[in-house]
Design brief:
Layout: H1 39-45, H2 50-67, E1 74-79, H3 86-102, E2 107-112, H4 139-155, E3 160-163, H5 170-173, E4 179-182, H6 190-198, E5 203-206, H7 213-224, E6 228-232, E7 238-242, E8 249-253, H8 263-276, E9 282-285, H9 297-310, E10 316-322, H10 354-374
Helix pairs in contact: 3-4, 6-7, 7-8, 9-10
Length: 375
């Protein structure tokens, strides 16, 4: 029997000038392609309400004022290293909300709601990528769960912040984000700098994984400028975006080979920012390299920052704290049910427990009061 298909080249019957088949060179390593919901459909399915819009808009304005030195409060980005459970995230949000209300005069509290996790090699990539934690990569479900959680958190009156890692995911959730971060692995990426230039929220750029501040200073400068790049619209169509630039960007010190949160490091970082011609606003990440990946050392870092603020330091605009309901971390084993995990414990980086977090926030708030009183 004659072969119906040429294994080397696909020839359309009756058409000698048909488009040449390129399957030998295109998508050769793609295992599957599945449909992705459009941002417009998801936003229609899970719309934002007026109250949540007002909260996001007001918090963005407040953060911008802090960055410009027009508001003497401290920005506090606080919450789990990553989200893996909706109900536990809401339990945490309720605790943080009460604390945020008590300290609203000193702290602009934003809950850390991270859905995407950069990996050094391989591993679980976050709630959007694999929401069921079983390797099924139900990303449409992950996007729905992520947006639903943001709506629930903001409905409590608590603004949310996240890291922007995937270049398409902001179209699904960015309207609910009060503050965003670009991580240490992507700060040097031109695509992420372009993305930040068009985001409607303030954005922090982390120093490089080796501790380089110049990389992040360059990123802040680049994001202030307008750019043109390819992307996806809310309707899911490819388009060319032209941005105006984002003036509400700042540096995040997260440590590197050595910590960089002390007064000398703050001064050195601000000199780099000044030389780059950008605002001297510095946020300190109490975790990662600054804690030498020992989660309880976040308390030591936070207290050092509080002492600097009490002494009158005004260039520190904020802090980041990795915190969950319970301290530490646990391993998730793919294939095991989510119910086997301990509730309220991180499955990525180790976090402070809430019992350790609230006193640290109160110390930081007291430091802002002390600086204000001495002014």
């Amino acid at each position: 029997m004659k072969n119906l298909d040429n294994p080397v080249r696909d020839l359309e019957a009756g058409s000698i000038d048909a488009t040449f088949d390129a399957t030998r060179t295109d998508d050769t390593r793609i295992r599957a392609v599945r449909p992705l919901i459009s941002p417009a459909l998801l936003l229609d399915e899970l719309p934002v309400r007026e109250g949540e819009l007002n909260l996001v808009e007001r918090t963005r304005t407040d953060i911008g004022r802090v960055l410009r030195g027009e508001d003497d409060r401290l920005i506090a980005i606080v919450g789990p290293c990553s989200i893996h459970d909706h109900d536990q995230a809401l339990d945490y949000a309720r605790l943080l909300k009460r604390c945020a209300d008590d300290m609203a005069g000193e702290l602009v509290v934003v809950m850390r709601v991270y859905f995407e996790k950069p990996r050094t090699t391989v591993g679980w990539k976050g709630y959007i990528n694999d929401p069921l934690l079983d390797g099924s990569f139900r990303m449409n479900e992950g996007l729905r769960l992520a947006r639903r959680l943001l709506l629930d958190v903001t409905a409590l009156g608590l603004p949310a912040g996240t890291e922007f890692l995937d270049l398409l995911s902001p179209q699904y959730i960015a309207d609910l984000i009060a503050w965003g971060a670009i991580g240490a692995r992507t700060t040097e990426s031109q695509s992420h700098r372009q993305l930040a230039s068009g985001l409607s929220c303030p954005v922090g750029f982390k120093n490089g994984t080796d501790g380089s501040v110049k990389i992040a200073a360059d990123a802040v400068l680049a994001a202030k400028s307008g750019h043109a790049f390819m992307g996806m619209t809310k309707m899911g169509a490819a388009a060319i975006f032209e941005t105006r630039g984002n003036d509400d960007c700042h540096l995040i010190l997260r440590g590197g080979k050595t910590p960089n949160y002390d007064a000398a490091s703050i001064e050195a970082a601000c000199q780099v920012l000044a030389a780059s011609g950008v605002r001297q606003s510095v946020m300190v990440d109490c975790s990662h390299g600054n804690s030498s990946k020992q989660y309880e050392r976040q308390i030591e870092v936070g207290r050092d920052v509080a002492r600097q603020i009490s002494a009158g330091e005004r260039r520190i605009c904020g802090v980041m704290i990795e915190s969950h309901l319970q301290p530490g971390r646990q391993d998730h084993v793919e294939g095991q049910p989510k119910t086997s995990l301990k509730p309220g414990v991180s499955i990525t980086d180790a976090c402070l427990g809430w019992a350790q977090t609230e006193p640290l926030l109160r110390e930081l708030a007291a430091a802002v009061k002390a600086r204000r009183a001495a002014a």
